[in-house]
Structures are given as structure tokens and as C-alpha cells.
Amino acid sequence: MGDGYYKQRFDYMNFHGDVMFNLNALFGGYNPDRVYEIIPYLGAGITHNYTKPHREALAVNAGVINRFRISDAVDINLELSAMGAEDKFDGTIAGKHGYDGVLSATLGLTYRFPKRGFARPMPQLVSAVELAAMQQQIAQMAAANQQLQSALTAAQNRPVEVAETEVVVADPDIAPRTVFFKIGSAEVSPREVMNLSYLAEQMKQFPNATYTVNGYADSATGTPAFNKELSLKRAQAVVNTLVKEYDISADRLKVSADGGVDKFGQPILNRVVLVKSAN
């Protein structure tokens, strides 16, 4: 060439391993919404020249990746890199240095595909001791409900002495009634449908009272989004049973859903709907 240089053309491969450090995350903590991140790297490897005389040479690599966040799905990456290899890298021994150098700039695009599929809830294994404790607790709750029902019936049948200037009104408030569900299910079992008949009878005695139907799910299984939807379906299933099976007006029932929780002790007790007075 006119300036004393010689033009070369050859094909090569550089097989290398690099160590990278995200400096923003290292010193500033992880932040998925960070607009810019700088990631330097350093490594070494071996090059192979595919053009005669087919030589291999040791190489050292260094560079920096500049990552620009455009959106939750897209990043633009500008990479500036340098490689230094032994002087025999290009098959020609020349120049003032004992190595050959390659500088490069690469512009790239990163796209993150959205997560697809369904996260199936995994059933939780319960030991025999835990299962016995759960069953005992459920039996105690059922017995308490029955005692409350008996006390209510006795109170309703007891003669009430009313003074001439007094008006006695029965209290429409009820203790929270529980409806339990199987794991991952929003179907009201036949046993729970029968138990709701007692609640429906009391609701009919106070036609102006309103009630809150609050659904829950077990936070130990399923994703938060799945549990939120499941708890809402459970509450709606109880409302549908009261409306269709026992002719309770839907206007008297307010649906609420708390999603996955861990507030009632054992996981099986968190798969529940609570019905209580809203007055």
C-alpha cells in the first residue's frame, strides 16, 4: 500500500472464557428497572488461524458491555472489546510489538420472552401427626359452630318479657361460618353445602341483614396471581350455593378475596371461605 502497510485477509477463531462484573449491581444492588448498566470483562483463550500456515496462538481479551434498558422486554447492548494475541497469530512476524491486536465494537439487541405456561400447585405432604391435629382442630371448630347454633335456637325459643315501652330485636350478627375446600379446588363439597343450610336459615330470619363472603387460599402452594383468582372463585362458589340452593338474595352478599394467606395455622385451614355479618 502507499503508506508502507500490507493488506491481509485471513479467517480465525478465538475460543475464550471471560469473567464479567456488573458494576451497577455490584455497588448499587440489583435493580431490574435500571436504565443503564456497565459490565466490564477480562479473559483469556486460544486463537486458530484457518488460513495458511494454520497457526494457534494464546490470546487475552478485555472489554466492556454497555447495557441500555428500553423496556421490560428489550435491551440495547453496545460492546467495546480488544484482543491481544501472540505475534504469530496472523502467520506473519512483523511490527514493533511482540503481539497482534484486534479492536471491535458490537451493537446487539436483547429480547426477553414472556413467561408462558401454567404453574401447577404442588400438594403439600402432611404427616400423620399433623393430619390428626388438623382433623381435631376442624372437629373443634365444627363443635363450636354446633354449640352456637344450639344456643341460638334455645335463645329464639325462650320467652321474652317485653316491657310496654321496650322493643326487643334479635341480633342478626353471626359468628364467622367456615367453608373448607380441597387443595386447588373451588368446588363446594356436598358436606359443606349441607352445613350452609344452617347459615341460610338464620339469614332468612333477618332479611335486611347483609353479609361478607371472604375467600382465602393456601400461600404455601401456587403463585400469588393463581391464589388470588382461586380465593375469589371459592367465595363466589359459596355465594352461588346460598343463592341457588337456599334462595338467599345475591344483593345481601358481598364477595371479597384475600388470595394466598398463612393466617389460620395449618395450610389446610387456609383453604377456606369465611361468612360473617357486614352490618
Can you give keywords for this protein?
five-stranded antiparallel sheet, 32% strand, 27% helix, alpha+beta, 4 helices, 279 residues, rod-shaped
Query: Which consecutive residue ranges, at least 5 long each, have pLDDT under 50?
Result: none
Q: What's the main sheet like?
A: 5 strands, antiparallel
Please, how many helices? 4
Q: What sort of overall outline do the alpha carbons produce when their principal axes are compared?
A: rod-shaped
The Cα radius of gyration reads 36 Å
Instruction: Provide the β-strand percentage band.
Output: 25-35%
- Gap between N and C termini, in Å? 95 Å
Helix content: 25-40%
Mean pLDDT across all amino acids: 85
Query: What string gives the helices and strands in order?
Result: EHEEEEHEHEHEE
Number of strands: 9
In spatial order, strands of the major sheet run: 1-2-3-4-5
Pairing-aware structural class of the strands and helices?
A: alpha+beta
Q: What would you say this structure looks like, in words?
A:
The chain has 279 residues and is an alpha+beta fold. 27% of the residues lie in helices and 32% in strands. The protein has helices at 23-28, 128-157, 190-205, 224-246; strands at 12-20, 36-49, 56-69, 74-86, 99-111, 177-180, 211-218, 253-261, 272-277. Strands 1-2-3-4-5 form a five-stranded antiparallel sheet. Strands 6-9-7-8 form a four-stranded mixed sheet. Strand 7, helix 4 (224-246) and strand 8 form a beta-alpha-beta unit. Helix 3 packs across helix 4. The protein is rod-shaped and about 120 Å long. The model has no long low-confidence stretch (mean pLDDT 85).
